[in-house]
Amino acid sequence: MTSEAIYEKLEEILKTVKPKMDPARISMDASLTTDLGIDSLSMLLLSLAIEHEFGFQFQTQEPFKTVREVVEYIEKTV
Amino acid sequence: MSNYFYDMIPAAEMAQLHYIPTVPAFLDWITTQWAERPALSDTVNTYSYAQMSERIACRRTLLQDLGLQKGDHVAIFDKNSVDAVESFLAVTSAGMVAVMLPAQLPAPAVIGCCAKFRAKALVVRDEFKQAVQGAPCPLISASELAQTPTPAAVVDKEEPAAIFFTGGTTGAPKGAVLPHRALMRGAFNGCFAPGSQLFGHVTIGFLPLTHVFGLIAGTLGKLMVGALWYSAEDMKATIGKLPVIRPTVLVLVPGLVEVLVGLTKMYGPQFLGGRLKTIISGAANVPPKLMEEFKQFNISVLAGYGMTEGANLTSGNADTDTRPTSVGKIYPEQEVKLVDGEIWFRGDNVFLGYYGDPEQTAATLTEDGWLKTGDLGRFDEDGFLYIVGRIKNIIVLPSGENISPESIEEPFYQYPAVRDCLVKEDVSGGQGVLAIEILPRPEAVDGKTPEEVEAYFKQVVEEVNATLPSTHRVAKFSIRKEDFKRTGSLKVSRNQN
């Protein structure tokens, strides 16, 4: 999958996990916490949704800071 | 005796359920009763009740080989694994006392706890073994089984069985010593749940086994009714397996209930396996909104109230639709009374005392066996209990007014935009006033400017104030950008310093 395709899919997941968030806030460089308001519980939900949609399991304990880091991790893994 | 809980269960099933006062007798009973049914599983290996019992007997041999005696303390340091459940049952059925060490404890604290609680052995998960080599007692690998079995001990229900850490939202951590009768009463109470059958459940050990709610309600109570219990060594990975495990009942805390609500909304009830009928939630207040959301999927939430010193839940509420803020009715065989508004209860679920701390024990347990909970409560006309606040948290304002911060926080939780809040006395202006810190639900503030957020919560404060007596009104408010400090059970800690 290209990083563009991953980003598009991730954008859809973020919109579902955070239905009331302004979608215009989502960008490659958006911070998961300060820009998108992802707290620890929504992070658990988000990572489960990503695993479900992309069909893999995260093998890292390192926290992701930006959308780009998540996209790069998925690109490397899938 | 309350019939509220008995009435949740069909009479024919209820007739098979018995309170069994010791762990060895319990183990004996479940092994005979449920012999070939699956008992414990990590999704790769599944053990029947008979196999589990045999494995536990072989684990007792390891304790015996070390020369341990009845009454000796054995610490257990593991994740929520099949090994941990079996190790707990091996130690307690050998008449020894299990000291349950939280898996997130750093290694030096584990070593310190072994010394403080005079552990004669430490049962440890293989991956943690290297870090705790300095423990002042022999190590037993949690994955190890001896070749030959050792019979269970004969124990009296009053003998100590386990020590659990408790600090709650205030105070330094203490070790609460629970006798066999208390563990088993808690397990018996853990069997009751509305909306589903008593026997044949499938459940998952999401909550820590080092917490009474996870071990007693979530595990022992479920084994008592012949359930299949799945381990949850990794929370996220196990949630991902929900469609395969297909649980019928779960014991959770509100934070986890919220995650499951989110998943159900995204992927439908099938993501939870499609069989889940009941969630038992404790440790913190369950927001009524969560209960309503689950109700749409025909899943009932049983809200409860309890404390480590009372071995699991003391009350449970199956009528959350009509009384969402109540913690329910008192479980069978427990006495309860209000003394100056404080909830006291008595029964075989009550602990023996805090390990090595007679002063705290005397302050908590009366000579005639009443446990002073430190919680303020009230009953409605139908006998449903409501928690009003905690005595230790009482704020005494300059006016002399005694105010329970929880009673002020409670109406704020009715607003979906309020994720959590904390009321304190603010003396920065020279005179004490009530101040509230609000942690907004992220989606409620998304896309709003700080001014809009401030204006919204100002309106909320004004609306709540309008419902409160003038002495109880909040004079200051602030909005938090970061989460509150939380306790091990995810409650907002009253001490944020």
Features:
heterodimer, A: 78 residues, mainly alpha, 3 helices, 0% strand, B: 497 residues, alpha/beta, GMP Synthetase, Chain A, domain 3, 2 domains, 5-stranded mixed sheet, globular
Describe the SSE topology.
The complex is a heterodimer of chains A (78) and B (497).
Chain A: H1 3-17, H2 40-54, H3 67-77
Chain B: H1 11-14, H2 23-34, E1 38-41, E2 46-48, H3 49-65, E3 73-77, H4 82-93, E4 97-101, H5 107-116, E5 119-124, H6 126-129, E6 139-141, E7 160-166, E8 174-179, H7 180-189, E9 202-204, H8 212-224, E10 228-230, H9 235-240, H10 242-245, E11 249-252, H11 254-267, E12 278-281, H12 288-295, E13 300-307, E14 312-317, E15 329-330, E16 334-339, E17 342-347, E18 353-354, H13 358-364, E19 371-379, E20 385-390, E21 395-396, E22 402-403, H14 405-412, E23 418-426, E24 433-440, H15 442-445, H16 450-465, E25 476-479
Parallel strand pairs in B: 1-10, 3-4, 3-5, 4-7, 5-6, 9-10, 11-12, 12-13, 24-25
Antiparallel strand pairs in B: 1-2, 7-8, 8-18, 13-14, 14-15, 16-17, 17-19, 19-20, 21-22, 23-24
Helix pairs in contact in B: 2-3, 3-4, 7-8
